[in-house]
Amino acid sequence: MTKNKIPVTILTGFLGAGKTTLLNRLITENPNKKFAIIENEFGDIPIDQELVVNAKDGIFEMSNGCICCSLNVELGELLQKLMNEKYDFDHLIIETTGIAEPDGIAAAFIGGNRSSKFYLDGTICLADAHDIVKNLEERGEAHKQVSFADLIVLNKIDLVSDDQLNEARMLLKKYNADAPIIESSYGEIERDILRLNAYDSNKLENKLLNPHQHHHHDELVAHSFDFKESLVAEKFEHWINMLLFLSGYQIYRIKGILNLDGETNKIIFQSVRSNSKIEIGSPWMDGEIRKSKIVFIGNNIKKEPLEKGLKSCICKS
User: Fold this and answer.
1) pLDDT by residue (tens digit) across 186-195?
2) C-alpha closest to that of 95 among 54, 125, 74
3) Do 106 and 89 meet the contact criterion of CB atoms below 8 Å apart?
4) 169 and 288 in one domain?
């Protein structure tokens, strides 16, 4: 349930992709929203001192209702401070550094105490149409930023030819077949990108029931499994916890609909790094084929051990 929780949007993308330009547009074009903005590289957003009404512990309250703060402490500390001080905001945007890997930030909102106050709406990756092909060929950070995204904004399309644009589109799809791609110049976007609901259990159900073809690219892989046998809840919980404990650094994200033995509803499982959450989905309908669908996305993860582990959780009776 996301009612009364504050949505969180993560903005990622390689150096120079246009994250700050897009962020400023979001603030300007949503005057009725009160944003809290966490900057990994504080100073990228020019703060007009005339707009600052109060500054305390690195948190700047703005006359436009927004809050801007520097990620100069642990994210958890800063989130706690924002909540404890009773700042008034209704959407949190976190802009990562150009070489940051977004899954570490996203994991902070999956499970645990923070999930009672915030919900992760989605990760938006900005890709520079001129440089993204080179970045993906050379930089591992760019691989993870693109592969982890729930939406990709292919920015600066005015600076490239049609052939370059097509090449960028094709390569982005190889790294992330699921994320929609929006093209833009100067961060101009017509659709609402602050309501992605990428981690909403209902949306995830629909997405997994109608999956895209997942691609492999070098070490970055996505393995999908689909089987009708029911799973034993205790066995699955034990196995997945061990998997995330031992290999969470390799597994960026897991998304699954589970058919658990004895359950009348679909069970939605999600994880980011070693943090995970389980939610109750919609009921299994009469005549509906009960089966599990689960996708693992990560770096150099092997399909066979995952398949073996899942099969060990199957109900034998």
Assistant:
1) 889 988 999 9
2) 125
3) no
4) no
pTM for the whole structure: 0.82
Domain membership flag for residue 217:
yes
Residue that is last in its domain, among 183, 209, 244? 183
How far is it, in rounded angstroms, from Cα 188 to Cα 155? 9
Give 43's contacts (C-beta < 8 A, 6+ positions apart): none
pLDDT tens digits along 263-291: 999 999 999 988 999 999 999 999 899 99
Q: Which letter does DSSP use for residue 293 in this model?
A: E
DSSP, residue by residue, 79-126: HHHHHHTT---SEEEEEPPTT--THHHHGGGSSSGGGGTEEEEEEEEE
Single out the residue of 252, 170, 193, 254 nearest to residue 11, CA to CA: 193
Q: What are phi and psi of 54, to 5 degrees?
A: -160, 135
Same domain, yes or no: 63 and 113: yes
Cβ neighbours for 151, distance < 8 A, ≥ 6 positions apart? 122, 123, 124, 125, 179, 180, 182, 193, 196, 198
